[in-house]
Amino acid sequence: MNDDIVPLIWLSFCFLGLFGISELIHRITSTKVEHTRKLVHFGTGALTLLFPAYLTSSWSVLVLCASFAVILLFSLKYRFLPSINAIDRESHGSILYPLAVYSCFLLYEYHQYDLMFFYAPVLVLAISDPLAALFGKRWPKGEFTVGKYSKTLMGCTAFLLSAFVVLLGLSYLFNKELSFMTAYQLVLVATGATLVEAVSGKGSDNLTIPLSVVLLLSLFASL
After folding, report:
1. Most-buried pick from 55, 87, 98, 116 (CB within 10 A)?
2. pTM, 2 dp
3. 50: pLDDT strictly greater than 90
4. How far from 163 is each of 26, 32, 130, 222, CA to CA, in Å?
5. 160, 187, 171, 181: which is closest to 223 by C-alpha?
C-alpha cells in the first residue's frame, strides 16, 4: 500500500477537483442539478477507470472510497455540494457508488486482475445509466411504473443496447476475439443489468448495476 500513497493523493485531488468544477458550474451558470450530476457521474467513472493502473492494493481503494463516502454523507447531512445533492427526490446513489467501486475492485482481484471484471461494471454504470435517463426523458415512450418509480421502454432499450456495445467492445479489447457464445453471454449480462436498473430506485442502481454486471460475468466465467 505504501507504493500507492502518491497515486492516492493525486486521485483524491482529481475527485475533489471534479466536485469543485461541478459546484462552480452549478453556482455561476445556474446549470440544472441533473446536468451537473451527470457531469460528476461521467467524471467519477472516468477517474475510477484509473484505479487498476495506479492502485495496487484493495486497501488503497478502500481508503479512497471510504473517505469520499464520508464526505458525501456529510454533504447530505449538512446540505453542501448542491450540484449533486439538490434534487427533488430521495436518492442514496452518491453514497452507494464508492461501495460499488470497492466491491468491483475486490472481484477484479479475485479474478486474478482480469480488467474485464472492473472496467465492464464501471463503464456500464458510467455510460448506460445516463443514456437510459437521457433517452427516457427525451423520448418517454412505453412508460411503466415499478413501485413508486416511472421507467420507459425507450430508456431501457437505450440501456440494453449501450451496455451490450460496451461489453462487446471490452471483450474484444481484452480477448482479441469474439465468438457467438461470448456475444450470447454478453447479451444476457446486458439484459440482466437492464432488468436490475429497471427495478432499482432511490439511486440504488449505482450499486445494483455494477454488481449485477460483475456477478453475471463471474457466473459465465465459472461455467
Report:
1. 98
2. 0.88
3. yes
4. 29, 26, 11, 21
5. 181
